[in-house]
Amino acid sequence: MLDVESRFADYTEDFPRPRQVFVTHSHALVTKVKEKFTTLYESIKSVSYSPEELKLLSQTKVVTRTETDPLLLETWPSDLPRRFGDLKDEHFPLFVAYDHVCLMQPFLLLIP
User: Fold this and answer.
1) Residues 6 or more apart from 91 whose CB is under 8 A from it?
2) Domain assignment of residue 112, yes or no
3) Helix or strand or coil: residue 49?
């Protein structure tokens, strides 16, 4: 996922955005994988930063939020729409728990 996202950043005009999805049963694993992905992706992007930008970045305190409370883990992700059809490019790469995927409404409901 990391490789595809970093390559896409280099060729944004030529290709449509890749829509990668990481699905697992564990809510805690979703959070950890998303945090790790974000950290690694930001470090890859920092290669192109100027010395001034790196200095500003080093002065910024990074706060990672680990959701370990079982009640928090069972809530719907605030950045995730309830319908597949409402997913936009900015939702990807998507890190989601399996039960959230099952609760999402399909693209189109066929009602007889």
Assistant:
1) 79, 80, 81
2) no
3) coil
Is 111 among the domain residues? no
Which of these, 37, 34, 31, lies nearest to 3 by C-alpha position? 37
pTM to 2 decimals? 0.68
pLDDT in tens, the chain (112 residues): 888 888 887 776 777 888 899 999 999 999 999 999 998 988 887 777 777 876 776 676 555 444 444 444 457 777 788 888 888 988 999 999 998 888 887 665 555 5
Give CA 69 to chain center in angstroms: 20
Residue 41 domain-assigned? yes
* Cα-based angle 76, 30, 47 (whole degrees, multiple of 5): 120
Residue 60 three-state SS:
coil
User: Domain range holding 13?
Assistant: 2-103
Give the chain's domain count.
1
Q: Is residue 61 part of a domain?
A: yes
